[in-house]
């Protein structure tokens, strides 16, 4: 019996110990769970603080451009090896030319990044006029070269260049400059459309004469973007959109190869070994990739199964070798670029940079959607390349040039200008040896317009006046004196009521300096006459200078 009681006591003690241990574990787990919750909330707070930094847009656009360019070079090397070996005898030929044009584009990127905004606006119209001249020259036999059924190339020393790519950039810059200037001048709708739309029609007509459906669609996207972001009336935008759709439909059925593309899109199985062969092989490559792909360089569609695998249909190679995950990651990069571009446009104070950045973002993202759309079979084949990914010299260089302009606009955000001019140490700016951006100075007309807009938003001044009979006037001098006396009495009465209603401030102990314990009231502080008075929280010493905007630390 005694042994049983002893065992029960030991069991009860063990149970009590386990209960205490579990309680202690629970008490320890609560702070750990709170810490975990705090750690999960902290990254969100840090991420929000990072997004609020003045140089975030600048760093984001550089990172996205670098990632897209690097991924494009890798995929061009993987997709062009067989084609290069068949036509040039070396698997590095297409990749080498792409690297060279990427170097040219990076130089253009750096020039655009350093270019002052005033200089860019000054050369906008001469640059557009020069590209119109190039579009005319390329149509002359013997000067322009025919490639893929289009006379739209200059060939110099073995290197080809497409002037329509330069025309798109020049038109975007000049159009943004024109619309921004006309909006500041409060020009009429006709004055805003007359220079822009006829110039776009001339450029589009010259590109259609080559013919090049892809560049026509791309320039139309830029025109529609300029009209939309300039804030023109909706009827003007819709009429322009309708005209663009009708023109695209007419062009699609006017030529034999374009009508064949439309027919293969409407009925892919009609001629699977003919006009629909390329689109069919692209979908086979995407299906073969699955979720994670066959591996980089392990695709089979580039072995002469898919025409233009390194150019127009490189997205199919990405889907085959990197799978659905890789293709989705590429689309996420373009989505990040769209967010960054619109963020820069929204935060810019200069109307020209705002319009140029938004239009460029729409152009790049729209071209990406069209390319991916016809690769997966949602759109007819137009020949538009995937920006910064597809092989193409002039397209690569001009896209990097536009990325440089967007990055330049990111440095001209008001917060970024204030931070850089206040001496903030930005490592990327120091590494690239970039000059300080100039702050945007609004014109007198813009300042007057903003004042008028603020005055309209402010409440009416006569809202607090006592209501009276409309149009009632005091009769004669006696009436005027009586009205003046009554107004004076009412004013004095209101002032007296306000003084009586105002709460009196009672002195509190926190308003007086608190002396440290252990010192007498009249004792002098030791240490060279330094004051030992401690001031309450929120109260500063007299003479303390507040930090100005130029001296604040950003980031």
UniProtKB/TrEMBL annotation:
<feature type="transmembrane region" description="Helical">
    <location>
        <begin position="192"/>
        <end position="209"/>
    </location>
</feature>
<dbReference type="GO" id="GO:0015648">
    <property type="term" value="F:lipid-linked peptidoglycan transporter activity"/>
</dbReference>
<dbReference type="InterPro" id="IPR013437">
    <property type="entry name" value="FtsW"/>
</dbReference>
<dbReference type="GO" id="GO:0032153">
    <property type="term" value="C:cell division site"/>
</dbReference>
<keyword id="KW-0131">Cell cycle</keyword>
<feature type="transmembrane region" description="Helical">
    <location>
        <begin position="60"/>
        <end position="83"/>
    </location>
</feature>
<dbReference type="GO" id="GO:0008360">
    <property type="term" value="P:regulation of cell shape"/>
</dbReference>
<comment type="function">
    <text>Peptidoglycan polymerase that is essential for cell division.</text>
</comment>
<feature type="transmembrane region" description="Helical">
    <location>
        <begin position="153"/>
        <end position="180"/>
    </location>
</feature>
<dbReference type="GO" id="GO:0009252">
    <property type="term" value="P:peptidoglycan biosynthetic process"/>
</dbReference>
<feature type="region of interest" description="Disordered">
    <location>
        <begin position="16"/>
        <end position="40"/>
    </location>
</feature>
<feature type="compositionally biased region" description="Low complexity">
    <location>
        <begin position="462"/>
        <end position="490"/>
    </location>
</feature>
<dbReference type="Pfam" id="PF01098">
    <property type="entry name" value="FTSW_RODA_SPOVE"/>
</dbReference>
<keyword id="KW-1133">Transmembrane helix</keyword>
<dbReference type="GO" id="GO:0005886">
    <property type="term" value="C:plasma membrane"/>
</dbReference>
<feature type="region of interest" description="Disordered">
    <location>
        <begin position="445"/>
        <end position="555"/>
    </location>
</feature>
<keyword id="KW-0328">Glycosyltransferase</keyword>
<keyword id="KW-0961">Cell wall biogenesis/degradation</keyword>
<keyword id="KW-0812">Transmembrane</keyword>
<dbReference type="GO" id="GO:0071555">
    <property type="term" value="P:cell wall organization"/>
</dbReference>
<dbReference type="GO" id="GO:0051301">
    <property type="term" value="P:cell division"/>
</dbReference>
<keyword id="KW-1003">Cell membrane</keyword>
<keyword id="KW-0472">Membrane</keyword>
<protein>
    <recommendedName>
        <fullName>Probable peptidoglycan glycosyltransferase FtsW</fullName>
        <ecNumber>2.4.99.28</ecNumber>
    </recommendedName>
</protein>
<feature type="transmembrane region" description="Helical">
    <location>
        <begin position="125"/>
        <end position="147"/>
    </location>
</feature>
<keyword id="KW-0132">Cell division</keyword>
<dbReference type="InterPro" id="IPR001182">
    <property type="entry name" value="FtsW/RodA"/>
</dbReference>
<keyword id="KW-0573">Peptidoglycan synthesis</keyword>
<feature type="transmembrane region" description="Helical">
    <location>
        <begin position="313"/>
        <end position="340"/>
    </location>
</feature>
<feature type="transmembrane region" description="Helical">
    <location>
        <begin position="352"/>
        <end position="376"/>
    </location>
</feature>
<comment type="similarity">
    <text>Belongs to the SEDS family. FtsW subfamily.</text>
</comment>
<dbReference type="InterPro" id="IPR018365">
    <property type="entry name" value="Cell_cycle_FtsW-rel_CS"/>
</dbReference>
<keyword id="KW-0133">Cell shape</keyword>
<feature type="transmembrane region" description="Helical">
    <location>
        <begin position="95"/>
        <end position="113"/>
    </location>
</feature>
<feature type="transmembrane region" description="Helical">
    <location>
        <begin position="215"/>
        <end position="232"/>
    </location>
</feature>
<keyword id="KW-0808">Transferase</keyword>
<feature type="transmembrane region" description="Helical">
    <location>
        <begin position="237"/>
        <end position="257"/>
    </location>
</feature>
<comment type="pathway">
    <text>Cell wall biogenesis; peptidoglycan biosynthesis.</text>
</comment>
<dbReference type="GO" id="GO:0008955">
    <property type="term" value="F:peptidoglycan glycosyltransferase activity"/>
</dbReference>
């Amino acid at each position: 019996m005694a042994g049983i009681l002893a065992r029960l006591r030991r069991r009860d003690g063990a149970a009590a110990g386990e209960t205490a241990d579990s309680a202690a574990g629970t008490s320890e787990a609560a702070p750990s769970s709170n810490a975990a919750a705090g750690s999960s909330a902290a990254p969100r707070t840090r991420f929000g603080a990072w997004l609020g930094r003045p140089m975030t847009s600048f760093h984001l656009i550089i990172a996205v451009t670098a990632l897209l360019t690097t991924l494009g070079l890798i995929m061009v090397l993987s997709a062009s090896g067989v084609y290069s070996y068949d036509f040039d005898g070396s698997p590095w030929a297409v990749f080498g030319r792409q690297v060279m044009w990427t170097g040219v584009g990076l130089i253009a990127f750096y020039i655009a990044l350093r270019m002052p905004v005033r200089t860019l606006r000054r050369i906008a119209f001469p640059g557009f006029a020069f590209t119109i001249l190039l579009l005319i020259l390329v149509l002359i036999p013997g000067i322009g070269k025919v490639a893929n059924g289009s006379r739209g190339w200059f060939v110099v020393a073995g290197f080809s260049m497409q002037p329509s790519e330069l025309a798109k950039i020049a038109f975007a810059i000049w159009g943004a400059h024109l619309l921004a200037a006309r909006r500041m001048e409060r020009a009429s709708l006709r004055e805003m459309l007359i220079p822009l739309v006829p110039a776009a029609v001339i450029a589009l007509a010259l590109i259609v004469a080559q013919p090049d459906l892809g560049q026509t669609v791309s320039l139309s996207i830029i025109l529609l973007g300029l009209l939309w972001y300039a804030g023109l009336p909706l009827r003007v935008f819709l009429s322009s959109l309708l005209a663009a759709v009708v023109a695209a439909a007419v062009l699609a059925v006017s030529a034999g190869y374009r009508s064949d593309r439309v027919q293969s899109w409407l009925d892919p199985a009609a001629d699977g070994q003919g006009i629909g062969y390329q689109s069919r092989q692209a979908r086979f490559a995407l299906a073969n990739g699955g979720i994670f792909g066959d591996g980089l360089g392990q695709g089979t569609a580039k072995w002469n199964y898919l025409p233009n695998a390194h150019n127009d249909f490189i997205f199919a190679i990405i889907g085959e070798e990197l799978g659905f995950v890789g293709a989705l990651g590429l689309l996420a990069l373009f989505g990040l670029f769209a967010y960054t571009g619109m963020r820069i446009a929204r935060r810019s104070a200069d109307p020209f940079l705002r319009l140029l950045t938004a239009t460029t973002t729409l152009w790049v993202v729209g071209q990406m959607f069209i390319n991916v759309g016809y690769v997966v079979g949602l759109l007819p084949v137009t020949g538009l390349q995937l920006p910064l990914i597809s092989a193409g010299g002039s397209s690569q260089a001009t896209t990097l040039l536009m990325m440089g302009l967007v990055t330049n606009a990111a440095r001209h955000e008001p917060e970024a200008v204030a931070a850089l001019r206040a001496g903030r140490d930005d490592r990327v700016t120091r590494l690239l040896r970039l000059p300080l951006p100039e702050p945007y100075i609004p014109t007198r007309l813009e300042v007057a317009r903003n004042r008028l807009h603020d005055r309209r938003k402010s409440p009416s001044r006569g809202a607090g006046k006592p209501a009276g009979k409309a149009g009632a006037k005091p009769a004669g001098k006696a009436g005027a004196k009586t009205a003046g006396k009554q107004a004076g009495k009412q004013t004095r009465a209101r002032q007296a009521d306000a003084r009586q209603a105002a709460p009196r401030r009672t002195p509190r102990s926190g308003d007086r300096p608190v002396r440290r314990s252990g010192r007498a009231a009249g004792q002098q502080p030791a240490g060279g006459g330094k004051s030992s008075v401690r001031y309450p929280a929120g109260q500063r010493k007299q003479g303390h200078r507040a930090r100005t905007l130029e001296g604040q630390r950003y980031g």
